[in-house]
Amino acid sequence: MRHPFLIAICLGLALLGAGDGQAAPERVVSINLCTDQLALMLAAPGQLASVSRLSQDARSSSMAELARTLPANSVRAEEVFLYNPDLVLAGTFTDLATLSMLRRLGVRVEVIAPAYSLEDVRTKVTQMGGLLGREAEAAALVAEFDKGLAALEQPNGKRPRAAIYEARGYSAGPDSLSGAILAAAGFDNVATETGLTVGGVIALERLVMLEPELVVLPTTWPGASRAEEILQHSALRELQRQAGTAPLTDRDWICGTPHVLRAIGGLAQPRTQLGGAE
Amino acid sequence: MTGYRGLIIGLSALVTALFLTSLLVGPAGLSPLRSLNALIFGADGPITLVMREIRLPRAILGVMVGGALGLAGAAMQGYLRNPLAEPGLLGVSGSAALGAVLSIQTGIVAGFALALPLAALGGAALSVGLLLLLAGPRGGSLSLILAGIALSALAGALTSLVLNLSPNPFAAAEIVFWMLGSLADRSFLHVALALPFMALGAALLLPLGRGLDTLTLGEDAAEALGTRLGRLRLMLVAGVAALVGAATAVAGSVGFVGLVVPHLLRGAVGARPSRLLLASALGGAAMVLAADIAVRLLVPERDLKLGVLTAIVGAPLFLHLVYRTRRGEL
Asked: What is the ipTM for the molecules in this complex?
């Protein structure tokens, strides 16, 4: 989004903040896709030693290009330890065996939970800023995020009913990040009508009976899987034909970073189409 | 003869009843009358789509997969004269799954859809051929089962390996599907893929009845009665491979159907292999339809695998057969 701009801010503030007595970590290794991206946004030059391999993959990471400027790790304790880090950033779902091994080896490990709402995005950015000793940069990023979000605010009006439908028939509910993106873009989530909160499986025939006005589908992965075959089902195709077309969910939907603004922005056009029709 | 005709009519009625039940069971909770009306005449709203594109192909596939597995099991048992011969247990389904997984993960299927059943058929044919070679014409229980265990383990391991190496994050979880089978969310695309191969397999196996009957008297007697054993064996391998390959390609490996059904029906047909073929096909269809209805009723939100239920019914029976084999009664 605004990488050069962000980097410029970071550089400037780093120079200002130099010599500030706080013991900020000097060699940080991140081993989770989402902490990778938050750290890439906030870390001082040279502070981040390595990011996980997943964040260098443009299919899953919104910051693949920037991530490729750093060495990648494969989220294994031995490999991470060899970077001699003074802080390791992990996610809630990182393998517990890896984390306990790193702790046994005396490395400080901080676990950051995934974001489930837009408020969480602010919290995560602030939390990351605190961990890296980059509070000012984090505050600036939150302010920028709020500005971007305000610009995307949908005028009041009809809220079309939409569904997010993923592999295996998993549907994101209102209390998930994807659900928050959908709500912020001005849609009601049909998963709410089925009683889902964070998310869960909605059988294809129930989805068809719910008659959503928009179905948001994921970008499929390379290789093939039966889990994703449901996305090609003729009944879903027919539903798509009757409902509005939506952009596919992608890397901007995965992590609670300010990049979710792009995902919200992508839904503006289908929202206008559906709102204008009736 | 009337007893046999009655049995076939009774089994057909059972399959029809289960087929209708399968159409009426689903998470959407539609009223039976409205849904049947929408299925046949069409109706406004999404209900027609649900009935025609989601439930109908699933029920049809249940009949096809069950019929194929029942028929293949009965034919293998007839030829090997061994009630333990079953596509799932002997690794034929597993090998078919390996073929299917290879064709999907190498991306061949994306360009050429028929590659999926063809590759599964290839895997199945290879394993049936190997089994007949290893077990010998008499189909001794020990060598047959040992060969089957080895083939199952190898096919399962290679399937897992291919799926673990896939760049797709969902692929590794799919090992469960290929090992246990499921009919969830299958569409008419899958019906169309499997149908020609299953029809071919049935056309190859059903006429073998007389040959299999003569084989119960021993190979020499069978040849004296005009059965050409080489041709019989070839048609058996091709037919079983086509049926099991097509069934596995669209539904994963559903085990134990070819074991339980012929076993239950053998008494009713007077242990004649020729009569067992059609009866087992119908019985297999009934068993898979019933299992598929049960998975939707027991835990509707979970996509319970078909093979879980067939194994719960089939494994105790298998143990019973093994026990009898040990006592030398077979």
From this structure: 0.72
What are the pLDDT digits (tens) for A63-87? 999 999 999 999 999 999 999 999 9
Chain B residues near residue A232 by CB distance under 8 angstroms = 189
Residues A99 and A32: beta-carbon distance below 8 Å: no
Q: CB-based contact (8 Å) between A59 and chain B?
A: no
Condensed to tens digits (0 to 9), the pLDDT of residues A143-198 reads 999 999 999 987 777 899 999 999 888 999 999 999 999 999 999 999 999 999 99
B51 within domain boundaries: no
State residue A143's pLDDT score. 96
Name all domains of chain A by residue range, CATH numbers in brackets: 23-149 (3.40.50.1980), 161-277 (3.40.50.1980)
End-to-end CA distance of chain A: 34
Residue with tokens 């046949």: B40
Q: Which of B45, B54, B169 sits opposite A204 (nearest CB)?
A: B54
Residue of B nearest to A212 (CA): B46
Count of structural domains within chain B: 1
Looking at residue B108, which CATH number applies to its domain?
A: 1.10.3470.10
For residue B151, being part of any structural domain is answered with: yes
Q: Does any domain span residue B32?
A: no
Show residues of chain B in contact with A230, CB under 8 Å: 185
Choose from B22, B25, B31, B50 for mutation: most chain A CBs within 10 A.
B50
Nearest to A225 among B45, B46, B168 (CB): B168
- CB nearest to A224's CB, from B28, B47, B105: B105
CA distance B131 to chain A (A): 29
Single-letter amino acid, residue B194:
A
Residue B201 in domain: yes
Closest residue of chain B to A227, computed from CA coordinates? B170
DSSP alpha helix (H) spans, chain A: 3-17, 33-42, 64-67, 77-81, 96-104, 118-132, 135-152, 177-184, 190-193, 204-210, 234-242, 260-266, 268-277
Is the CB of residue A256 less than 8 Å from the CB of residue A124?
yes
- Among A114, A151, A112, smallest CA distance to A129 is for A112
Helix axes A33-42, A135-152, angle to 10 degrees: 110
Q: Which domain holds residue B294?
A: 63-326
